[in-house]
Amino acid sequence: MSSTLTVKNLFKHYKNAKYISARNINFEVSEGEIFGFLGINGAGKSTTIKCITGIIPFTSGNIEICGHDIFLDPYNAKRNFGFVPDNHAVYEKLTGAEYINYLADLYRVPSDKRKENFERMTKLFNLESAVNNQIMSYSHGMKQKISIIGALIHSPKLWILDEPMVGLDPQSIFEVKNFMKEYAKAGNSVFFSSHNLDTVERLCDRAVIVHGGQVIKEIDLEDYRKTGKNLEKEFIELTQNATIEQNKQKERLRKQEEELATKYNKLKASRMIIAQVKTEMEVEIDNLDTGKTAVQGKTRTAKKKRSARAN
C-alpha cells in the first residue's frame, strides 16, 4: 500500500523562538486509512500541519504528498490534497455555489466532474437549499460543511482536517464522520487532527501523539479496539510523563544558563578589574614620567647655575 503523505525528519524553528516547534517528526499516511494526529495545545500539531500544507516554510526535513515534494514541487503536491482548517476560512460575500466554483476553477476541475461532486456533497451535507445564499448568512456548521466541499471539489487523494468537529452540532458531526469513512474506503487518505480522543479511537486506523514538537508514540488503533486498550488513558499518561521530562529538561537548561551567566559575570568583573588596574598603572607610569622630567629639568637648571658662578 503506497503512502499519500510522508514526513521525514521535519524540523521547524521560528525566528527568535527559544524552543524548536517541530523536532525530527517522522510518520507516513497510507492509502485508504484515517490517520489521527494528537497532542495537547502547544505540542506542535498546527505547526506541523502548516508545514505539510505549505503555509509556512520548514527549517529542514522532507514532506511528500503522493510522491511530490511540497518544497521542490509545491504545485503538484498541493493539487493532491484538500485542507479544512480549524477556522473554516471562506469568502463570506460569495454564495456557496460561487465559492465552490471559484475553487473548482483554481484546481481546473472539468465541468462535468465539478457538477457531479458538487451535487453529491451538497446533498450529503444537506446544503442544497442554501448554496445560492451568501456564506455570511450560514451558521458555523454550514460554513464548516461548505469548507469541506471546497477542499474536496477536486477529488484529492489526501484530505487534511484540523479540528473539523469544533462547534458542530451532533447531526453535522455524524455527517462529517461518515463522509470521512466513505472517503477513506474509496482509496483516499484522511489526516485528522483532533482533541476528541473518543472520536479518534473509534474512527482512525492509526495515530501519532506529538508532544514538545516530537512524536512520542505511534499507535495502531485497530489493535486498541481488538484488545480493549484505552486511548485516553494512554494519551494522558504519555503526555504527563513527557511534560514531566520536558520540565526537567527545561530546569536543566535553566541551571546551565544560570551557571553560564554566573561565569560570564565573573569573567566580566575580572576584565573590569584588569582594565581598572591597567588604567591605574598607566596613570602611575605617567606620573613617574612627569616626575622624571621634572627632576631632569631641575638638574639642568642647577648645572647652569653652577656653571654661571664658576665663570
Report on the architecture of this protein.
This protein is an alpha/beta fold and 311 residues long. The protein has one domain: 3-Layer(aba) Sandwich (Rossmann fold). Helices cover 52% and strands 19% of the residues. The protein contains nine helices and ten strands. It has a six-stranded mixed β-sheet with strand order 6-7-8-3-9-10, sandwiched between helices. The chain has a four-stranded antiparallel β-sheet with strand order 2-1-4-5. The radius of gyration is 35 Å and the shape is elongated. The model has no long low-confidence stretch (mean pLDDT 87).
Secondary structure elements and their pairing?
Layout: E1 3-12, E2 22-30, E3 34-38, H1 45-52, E4 60-65, E5 68-69, H2 74-79, E6 81-84, H3 96-106, H4 111-124, H5 140-152, E7 158-162, H6 170-185, E8 189-193, H7 197-203, E9 206-211, E10 214-220, H8 221-227, H9 231-310
Parallel strand pairs: 3-8, 3-9, 6-7, 7-8
Antiparallel strand pairs: 1-2, 1-4, 4-5, 9-10
Unreliable stretches covering 5 or more consecutive residues:
none
Whole-number count of domains: 1
Helix content: 40-55%
The average pLDDT is 87
Number of beta-strand segments: 10
CATH topology: Rossmann fold
Q: What name goes with the CATH superfamily? A: P-loop containing nucleotide triphosphate hydrolases
Percent of residues in β-strands: 15-25%
> What best-fitting shape do the alpha-carbon axes yield?
elongated
Radius of gyration: 35 Å
Taking the alpha carbons of the first and last residues, their distance comes to 122 Å
Q: Could you say what the CATH architecture is?
A: 3-Layer(aba) Sandwich
Output the number of helix runs. Answer: 9
CATH class equals Alpha Beta
